[in-house]
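Q: Given only this backbone (237 positions), what sequence would you predict?
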């Protein structure tokens, strides 16, 4: 579904990503691990097409077609969506009105309940939500938007342990399900704590460091390696 080859990216004239190669197949869920400032969010922002992220070399293909010249809106229409780390508040737009505008009112109640957000559907999006509530709402929002490629920027940071479980299970269930047109999805998740790995059943993990993909491997083994040896390439690799 997603093919990234030899990707180099600049932000504000500074190179932030170097020679990234990554392939994400239909139904797959991958995680990105790496120290602060290693380029994880920049990679997601470049895939999504946020302004300021300039591809200087290489390419990103979605379903075989290059994304480089497509706007954020065009990429959203193709089926690329992101659960943001720090989304804006949207006063005047209630959660239920947002779901209705997306034609997703029928699934709002059950999906809100799964993320412990039933009491939030009449509230305005993100207005007065706590940090953890925003994270849960971002997952629900993404599901209502129904993208095929789901990008999650640190979905569990600032979230209590019980709700990490709810978020992780929702990510797994959503990513493994087909979209409303019956097409398979895929997901890419940034995680620092690794807690989410207990729930999402990721297929593959990648270590990013200094804007490069340092190593890829089996998620739980790679996370254990990072816990004892830091963000390094495992010796046997
Ligand atoms: N708009 C920008 N202007 C200037 N520098 C930027 C911009 N966006 C990202 N960078 C720089 O690019 C580098 C990578 O940042 P990025 O946010 O992608 O890292 P990250 O791995 O997601 O970090 P964290 O784990 O702390 O969220 C950092 O050095 C950051 O300062």
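A: Predicted residues:
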């Amino acid at each position: 579904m997603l093919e990234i080859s030899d990707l180099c990216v600049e932000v504000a004239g500074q190179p932030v990503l170097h020679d990234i190669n990554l392939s994400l197949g239909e139904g797959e869920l991958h995680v990105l691990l790496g120290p602060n400032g290693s380029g994880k969010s920049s990679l997601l922002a470049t895939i999504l097409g946020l302004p300021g992220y300039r591809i200087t070399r290489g390419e990103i293909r979605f379903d075989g077609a290059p994304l480089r010249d497509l706007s954020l809106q065009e990429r959203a229409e193709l089926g690329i969506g992101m659960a943001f780390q720090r989304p804006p508040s949207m006063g005047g737009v209630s959660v239920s009105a947002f779901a209705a505008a997306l034609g997703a009112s029928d699934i709002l109640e059950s999906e809100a309940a799964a993320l412990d957000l039933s009491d939030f559907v009449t509230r305005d999006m993100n207005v007065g939500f706590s940090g953890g509530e925003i994270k849960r709402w971002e997952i629900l929002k993404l599901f209502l938007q129904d993208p095929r490629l789901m990008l999650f920027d640190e979905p569990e940071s600032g979230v209590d342990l019980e709700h990490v479980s709810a978020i992780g299970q929702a990510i797994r269930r959503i990513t493994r399900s087909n979209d409303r047109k019956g097409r398979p999805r895929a997901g890419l998740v940034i995680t620092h704590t690794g807690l989410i790995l207990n729930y999402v059943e990721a297929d593959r993990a990648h270590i990013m460091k200094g804007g490069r993909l340092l190593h890829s491997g089996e998620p739980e083994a790679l996370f254990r390696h990072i816990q004892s040896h830091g963000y390094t390439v495992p010796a046997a690799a």
